[in-house]
Design goal:
alpha+beta, seven-stranded antiparallel β-sheet, about 35% helix
């Protein structure tokens, strides 16, 4: 953990290269928004299946001196050609945590049909134009340098490339080899993934980034790059096309807020996962978690039953608010929280419906920043399940966001043109007595919100520092089963099994969200915590102001 009394700014990211880039931007006089964007652009180079400029995400921005607290949400919408019934007869199953559906032919999972409208780059441009300090082109230089000079294959990248997929999902190897560009960039001559420690350069992506740095993000949507993208999509029968690119705009709005043990919790609006976080905290506030003991059988039971109830409500009610009437007041009401807590206290088990449940994906990435002026940014961005598609010469992979839409019509997550699907992303800022206490978020599919929840509980209820909070063993319940990491001992899980729970032990020591956060102590000291489940790091810097 980074705990330094002599620093006044900090960045935490899931890749050392990204954190390094953001720290250098802070040293150069950039603010938290500049640093977050520069770091995120580097992430698109050095974690190319986790995120990209053709992805999606959510960014929380807090600038106390300017009186600004807002979110720039960029949830990739379904293309205009998409229809609610187009895949209804292709369903084979649903992932066990509800993060997507398995369809015949994997039409929603890999390839051109899986691509929703690219959102990330325009969101970064919007955030920079509104809140940035340095020149736009300056934020691209670290990413361009890594694309040109190369970056080293890290353990997390190598492990992800070798993920074999499960029960109907395409393997990441299949995604990488889908196009000639992908094979040339990320595979060895014998067709196996590039090895740990190998250096990868991406001159095509460097050229793309250079053009965007000089011409601006709009070129990606309506200019020369946009025309190249649209031509490739049309040639391969994609749903997404030129009209989708031209129409896309990110959404700016106020945070969704709640409270927990005297703290103010500020997070993102639906279709982001913030509503689940607030709902779960509202239920758990009715329990004395500290007395139960951290990760005791009763603690895990109570938190998991809370997770299950929130998952049920999410599946039934939460989607794009432009298309779905979400009963926010009911879901977050004290009465609903009290009723759920009473059921949990009485030992009533919630049932999470799943359609032929299969296993879960685990992608996405995150950056948290606090600068010397107290400005904060928490941004989570992703490709979803990466589509595998790289347009020749452009160097970046497109999102695969169509894979998470519900192919069954008439549901909160059903497909509709222009509609964004639910994402568990919940970049969050926690305030204590009016001051920032946590700037936090995570990658990890539907497990994102479960990981962020537990890290917040670890700080607030158990007094952990930031690194302890993101490192402590985690668990999850997004189906009827309780999933645990392998560091939770069997003497803890056996009593849960005796209560009738199915406990599924994950072989990983660190799982269920990959949480990265910054804690500001009451004395103003910055603590950085990077989840050991990835390759991340926290860097503190001293900036003159």
């Amino acid at each position: 953990m980074t705990i330094q009394s002599d620093v006044n700014a900090m960045i935490v990211a899931a890749q050392p290269e990204a954190a390094e880039a953001g720290a250098l931007i802070l040293k150069a006089g950039g603010n938290a928004v500049d640093a977050a964007i520069a770091a995120a652009l580097v992430q698109t180079v050095v974690d190319p299946l986790m995120c990209g400029i053709a992805g999606f995400g959510s960014m929380g921005i807090y600038k106390p001196d300017a009186g600004v607290h807002e979110y720039v949400d960029f949830h990739a919408p379904a293309p205009l050609k998409a229809t609610p019934t187009m895949w209804a007869d292709l369903i084979e199953g649903e992932t066990r945590d509800g993060f997507g559906f398995i369809l015949k032919g994997a039409v929603n999972d890999v390839g051109y049909g899986s691509i929703a409208v690219p959102a990330t780059l325009k969101a970064f441009a919007t955030a920079h134009a509104t809140h940035g300090k340095l020149l736009w082109r300056d934020l691209f230089q670290p990413a361009i340098r890594f694309a040109e000079k190369g970056w080293m294959v890290r353990p997390a990248v190598y492990g992800f490339w070798n993920d074999e997929g499960s029960l109907g999902r395409a393997s990441n190897h299949d995604r990488v080899k889908f196009t000639a560009e992908g094979r040339g960039l990320y595979l060895r001559p014998d067709g196996t993934p590039r090895r740990l420690g190998e250096t990868i350069t991406n001159p095509g992506y460097a050229a793309t980034l250079k053009r965007i740095a000089e011409v601006g993000a709009e070129d990606f949507y309506t200019g020369a790059i946009g025309q190249t993208i649209a031509a490739d999509m049309e040639a391969h029968g994609a749903l997404m096309g030129a009209d989708d690119l031209a129409r896309y705009e990110p959404i700016r709005h106020a945070p969704m807020e709640g409270t927990y043990r005297g703290r103010r919790i500020a997070t993102n609006q639906p279709p982001g996962g913030g509503i689940m976080l607030l709902q779960m905290l509202g239920i758990l506030e009715h329990f004395d978690l500290k007395t139960m003991g951290h990760n005791s059988p009763e603690y895990i039971r109570v938190v998991c039953e809370t997770m299950k109830r929130s998952t049920i409500d999410k599946d039934a009610h939460v989607g794009d608010p432009r298309f779905v009437d979400i009963p926010v007041d009911l879901l977050l009401s004290r009465q609903s929280a009290e009723a759920a807590a009473a059921e949990i206290r009485a030992g009533i088990k919630a049932h999470v419906p799943r359609y032929k449940a299969n296993e879960v994906p685990k992608d996405t990435t995150h950056v948290s920043v606090v600068d010397a002026q107290g400005n904060c940014v928490t941004v989570t961005h992703s490709l979803g399940m990466p589509s595998g598609v790289i347009t020749e010469g452009l160097g970046f992979m497109y999102n695969g966001c169509m894979g998470v839409f519900d192919p069954r019509p008439g549901r909160a997550g059903s497909i509709a043109p222009g509609k964004s699907r639910f994402s568990a992303m919940c970049p969050t800022i926690v305030f204590n007595e009016g001051k920032v206490e946590l700037v936090i978020g995570a990658p990890g599919g539907t497990q994102i919100v479960m990981g962020v929840l537990q890290a917040i509980l670890n700080v607030v209820d158990f007094g952990m520092d930031m690194q302890e909070a993101v490192t402590a063993p985690r668990f999850s319940a997004t189906s009827d089963a309780i999933d645990v990491t392998n560091r939770i001992p069997r003497w803890t899980t056996e009593p849960l099994e005796a209560m009738g729970y199915e406990v599924i032990r994950n072989p990983a020591s660190y799982y269920f969200g990959v949480v990265h956060g910054i804690r500001v102590t009451p004395e103003g000291t910055l603590e950085g915590g990077a989840d050991p489940g990835r390759d991340g790091v926290a860097y503190g810097v001293k900036v003159k102001h």
